[in-house]
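Notes from the 1:1 (GR / supervisor)

We went over the backlog. Supervisor wanted to see one worked example end to end before approving the batch request, so GR pasted a single chain during the call. The sequence is below; no edits were made to it. Supervisor asked that the structure be written out right there so they could see what the output format looks like.
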Amino acid sequence: HWKEFTLGGGMVGDQEGTPCSFPDKRYSRGEMIYECTADGWKLKLASCSETDCAPQEVDFVLQYGVEEGGGYKKVKGLIHSKLPGSMEGEREIACPPGPNEQDDGKLTFACSKSSGWSLVRANCYGDTESPAALS
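Structure output shown during the call:
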């Protein structure tokens, strides 16, 4: 997208914002922020979006049970998931393949306008856990 507009004079370090409105597209969220530098105005940030939470890839450690030698034990494993862009609220996605290529269960993530994505609940491979952190 392109947009032509004029920014007034400014001192080095001054910032000016403009809405994410283009001749061919208007985004419902975000803005473009320009900063005055010694070389003129430069784009500092463009946060134009149609969603509250941006797409994100996440890694976290999840403890789950596995059968081994006729018994059952808890193990920890690294889980990698790809979250799509989303509006505020909860979103469930399928658990990635786990031990013995199991892929049953759901991961529940919450999208918040103020804090982004967080993992609420993991119910993968027959175990339910409420992890404390999302990295």
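Supervisor's comment: The chain has a mean pLDDT of 78.
Batch request approved.
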